[in-house]
Amino acid sequence: MDHSGHGMDGMQMDLPPFTLGRGLAFGGDPVFLVGCLLALGLYGWAVLRLRRRGDAWPLGRVVAWVLGVATVALAMCTGLNDYGMVMFSVHMVQHMIVSMLSPILLLLGAPVTLALRALPTAGRGRKGPRELLVALLHSRYMRIITHPAFTIPLFIASLYALYFSPLFDFLMESRAGHLGMMVHFLAVGLVFFWPIMGVDPGPHRPGYVMRMLELFAGMPFHAFFGIALMMASEPMVDTFLHLPASLGIEALSDQQAAGGIAWAFSEIPSVVVLIALVFQWYKSEERQSQRADRAADRNGDQDLADYNAYLASLNARGR
Known about the structure:
This protein is mainly alpha-helical. It has 14 helices and no strands. The N and C termini lie far apart (91 Å).
């Protein structure tokens, strides 16, 4: 296979050895930079719109959204994007961030709920952005792409079917293909984690135990993928077979590092999501308890009185 595509902008083939400073230097792709700025701007506009009319919006959600966008920018708008074109290990860092870390943080920001609250309602008989969003949330398409029968196989296929097929090499021949792949990873992460721990409304919202099972159904495959790369005795992906000599690294050791990164990342998000799920479960139970207490206060404990009367009637009958 011809690997000359990696040098299309004239800099990939002679990158100096990777260091953290070079990897985190500002640069990368303008498409993702514009996307990140838009994401921050639109979210900020929506929060200000709520505040102006006297509605609160949790600070924690703002922080989560900003961190989520920042992690995307970290992976795609820095030197990591240049090194990710030629080093498997750096590419894997990008993949893991945008598919496993960024989606969790972005979903904790509850962007759909914010949009539903901030967007104005269109006049009667008309359809504006808010109405279109509500229609999308209730559509059959959304029910399909958020169902575990779709999200779990998609999550797994994004590793095995992509990396171990000619499709990966084809996409990596151009910067556009590489960027398209990263957009795909971000989208897959969002649809996988949304039904599990997203705070936004969605068509598929199982109970908390089922959500945990969905989470743990996908994660072992991530770990196995990482272990397969670590244990391989020869390079498995053609794209990273011939590394530029200027990097001073071997393809096999770089692949093993990529495998270690994939394996480690399968554990970190699991813990974060599990903590978020347990917290959400606790808050849900707390809200239900408060609702029950308020209902009891309103009807003067009528339910308890009725139950006691029922027990008394049974007792009287028993005599």
